[in-house]
């Protein structure tokens, strides 16, 4: 190898696969918030599924997609996957907490005042990231790039198996065409 060869450090590898990291980072952050959502609901009579809230999110992102010049159906599909991924993680946490009471959360975050506003901030950032990656997401290389970016995000956030499953569930609608 030439003397100027750059070693394949993680940073170097990430810079060779630019672009979709913004999207997968936000996916990972949203999935980590599933822990707080689940902690807010576990042991209460509030079910994991809240179809009214889901409808609000999906209607909101469809309207904002139009304003950003994005395809509202494509954007809705991405967010539907984020919600499904979030529920997958929440269900996994419930099962874990049922089986291992000592792992149950010791605090109950406020869903409406704390957790949903955090999810809403990710929604706004994700819409921007989808706008900025529109061209990249239409390319044939999108799938491989997306899987590489997701792997780095999983590694960077030290996601456990359950959250990696969630991250995989979050991916299918990202690449268009
Ligand atoms: O806000 C909630 O109650 C959540 O559980 C989070 C979330 C989401 O991913 O945005 C997931 C499941 C619910 O059906 C609604 C929304």
TrEMBL record:
InterPro entries: Chorismate_II_sf (IPR036263), Chorismate_mutase-related (IPR051331), Chorismate_mutase_periplasmic (IPR008240), CM_dom_sf (IPR036979), CM_II_prokaryot (IPR002701). The keyword ATP-binding does not apply. It is an enzyme of class 5 (isomerase). It catalyses: chorismate = prephenate. It holds the Pfam family CM_2. One of its GO terms (molecular function) is chorismate mutase activity. Gene3D superfamilies: Chorismate mutase. Keywords: Isomerase, Signal. Pathway: Metabolic intermediate biosynthesis; prephenate biosynthesis; prephenate from chorismate: step 1/1. Its EC number is 5.4.99.5. SUPFAM superfamilies: Chorismate mutase II. Residues 1-94 form the Chorismate mutase domain. It comes from the Bacteria. PROSITE patterns: CHORISMATE_MUT_2. Catalyzes the Claisen rearrangement of chorismate to prephenate. This is Chorismate mutase. It comes from Streptomyces cyanogenus. The lineage of its organism: Bacteria, Bacillati, Actinomycetota, Actinomycetes, Kitasatosporales.
């Amino acid at each position: 190898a030439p003397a100027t060869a750059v070693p394949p450090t993680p940073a170097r590898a990430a810079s060779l696969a630019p672009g979709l990291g913004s999207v997968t980072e936000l996916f990972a952050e949203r999935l980590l918030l599933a822990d707080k959502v689940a902690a807010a609901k576990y042991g209460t009579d509030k079910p994991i599924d809240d179809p009214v809230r889901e409808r609000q999110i999906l209607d909101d992102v469809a309207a904002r997609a139009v304003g950003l010049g994005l395809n509202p159906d494509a954007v809705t599909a991405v967010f539907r996957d984020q919600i499904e991924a979030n529920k997958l993680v929440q269900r996994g946490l419930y099962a874990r907490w049922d089986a291992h009471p000592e792992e149950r959360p010791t605090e109950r975050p406020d869903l409406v005042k704390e957790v949903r506003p955090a999810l809403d901030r990710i929604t706004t950032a994700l819409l921007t990231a989808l706008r900025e990656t529109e061209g990249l997401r239409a390319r044939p290389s999108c799938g491989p790039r997306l899987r590489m970016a997701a792997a780095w995000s999983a590694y960077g956030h030290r996601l456990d198996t359950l959250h990696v499953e969630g991250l995989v569930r979050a991916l299918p609608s990202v690449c268009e065409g």
